[in-house]
Design brief:
426 residues; alpha/beta; six-stranded antiparallel sheet; five-stranded mixed sheet; 16 helices; flat; binds adenosine-5'-triphosphate; binds magnesium ion
């Protein structure tokens, strides 16, 4: 008779039975220029600042010596500004005192404090160091990192899901780079970009002369990946008629090249989707059996608004990458507060684009202020297509050689403006 693990049962039931959070169950996730770390919150104030006398010392020259305090109360976490120089922001508002709820981000200087229930930390699977190539040390990303590191060692298919711009491709690459297949190829295929009639031959290859236009034999992505990883991006776009073949490949059957011989699949499959693939199954555009084979393991990349603490580090990362074009630019605390408060439907990609537009708007500058961020956040209004090199030159003259001002007047990004300016008049 199997033994009953009473202790495990008890653990199970007691986890299920936790009815609500007690005041001591809050924690704060701090992210400053030194990295990310967590502290428990209690009902006595925890003081944040750059001074050694503070309970939590921050490494950020834009934070005051004693900047703000956080304590747990009946309505959530009470945030109090301690007469700081650059202010304390909750959401978009500069506050003297406020109540922050679950997931709320408090911006101080160029750092953030995110309040979370401590239960999240006890999540099964734990947390790990951030993934290579992915910026951001928030608890949610560290948890994702622990999962990815675990799955990287295995061979079963993984389905990476998440909104557009969350970093799914980087996660897929980390699954490859952190596993035993790292010495083998990583072959990314964007299914949405493949012409419908070529999907099968791109994936599985074709013999020379198999169809009109097949002038050379092609191995196909699966064969090219060999013992590496094949990354099928936008898997939801895989045409229904190509799905059975992928299904057979995943079931371990040999897969035939178009008009040719068969070969076995050795590569690991990682697929990504920004649409809910299960909805495609319900709508009949994606085979249920294929869906279940792809989703042996599911990795969800959280949207940026669920990890607002990472925004400062990501912004620093992108500003650094833009240095060759715009020089060294720092974010003003109020600008960071604006970025942290925004909801980012386009996620990390949108953050990068907004910073680009903000810099373009403000250049030349050393400090990016909230007004420039606001301009970057505004949807790019109609980009002019009638801008000729001659018109561009006359705008530069009118703006006394100031390229940024001329580009602004023409309503095109500075980089585009420069290209038009450099083009020869027809
Ligand atoms: N954590 C991160 N650190 C640094 N850069 C990131 C991070 N996440 C995303 N990026 C960058 O943001 C951009 C979008 O990321 P990626 O292409 O991986 O998104 P995606 O989830 O595949 O989006 P889509 O569904 O639109 O294809 C890329 O330029 C990527 O390098
Ligand atoms: Mg992608």
């Amino acid at each position: 008779m199997p033994l009953i693990d009473h202790e495990a049962r008890e653990r199970e039931t007691s986890t299920l039975e936790i009815p609500f959070l007690t005041p001591n169950d809050w924690m704060v996730e701090v992210q400053d220029e030194d990295g990310a770390r967590c502290y428990p919150l209690t009902d006595s104030p925890l003081v944040f600042g750059t001074s050694l006398q503070c309970d939590v010392r921050l490494f950020d020259p834009t934070v005051s010596q004693r900047h703000c305090s956080l304590e747990v109360g009946p309505g959530g976490v009470r945030v109090a500004d301690l007469h700081s120089r650059n202010g304390t922001f909750v959401g978009n508002a500069r506050i003297r005192e406020a109540w922050a709820g679950e997931g709320a981000a408090v911006s101080i200087g160029r750092s953030s404090l995110v309040c979370r229930p401590q239960l999240e930390l006890l999540h099964e699977g734990g947390v790990a160091d951030p993934l290579p190539g992915l910026v951001g040390g928030s608890v949610v990303m560290r948890r994702l990192s622990a999962l990815v590191r675990r799955l990287a060692r295995l061979s079963a298919p993984v389905l990476v899901s998440g909104e557009t711009g969350t970093g799914k491709e980087l996660v897929a690459h980390a699954l490859h780079a952190l596993g035993p297949r790292v010495e083998h190829p990583f072959v990314p295929i964007n299914v949405a970009a493949l012409p419908r009639e070529l999907v099968e031959s791109e994936l599985f290859g074709h013999e020379r002369g198999a169809f009109t236009g097949a002038v050379r034999k092609r191995l196909g992505a699966f064969a090219e990946a060999a013992y590496g990883t094949i990354f099928l991006d936008e898997i939801g776009e895989l045409p229904l008629d190509a799905q059975p073949k992928l299904l057979r490949a995943l079931d371990g059957y040999d897969v035939r090249r178009v008009g040719g011989s068969a070969g076995a699949l050795h590569a690991r499959l990682v697929a990504a989707t920004h649409v809910a693939l299960f909805d495609c199954v319900e709508q009949g555009t994606f085979r249920r059996d294929l869906f279940h084979r792809l989703e042996v393991f599911a990795v969800r990349v959280p949207p940026l608004r669920e990890r607002r603490g990472d925004i400062a580090a990501l912004a620093r990362h992108f500003l650094k990458r833009m240095e060759p074009e715009y020089g060294r630019v720092a974010l003003a605390p109020s600008a960071l507060a604006r970025l942290v408060a925004y909801d980012w439907p386009g996620n990390v990609r949108e953050l990068r684009n907004v910073l680009y537009r903000a810099l373009d708007h403000a250049a030349p500058t050393r400090v990016l202020h909230a007004a420039a961020v606001e301009a970057g956040l505004a949807r790019p209004s109609e980009v002019r297509t009638d801008l000729t090199p001659a018109l561009a030159r006359s705008l530069v003259l009118r703006h006394e050689g100031n390229l940024s001002a001329a580009a602004r007047a023409a309503n095109v990004p500075r980089t585009t403006f420069r290209k038009i300016l450099a083009a020869r008049a027809p």
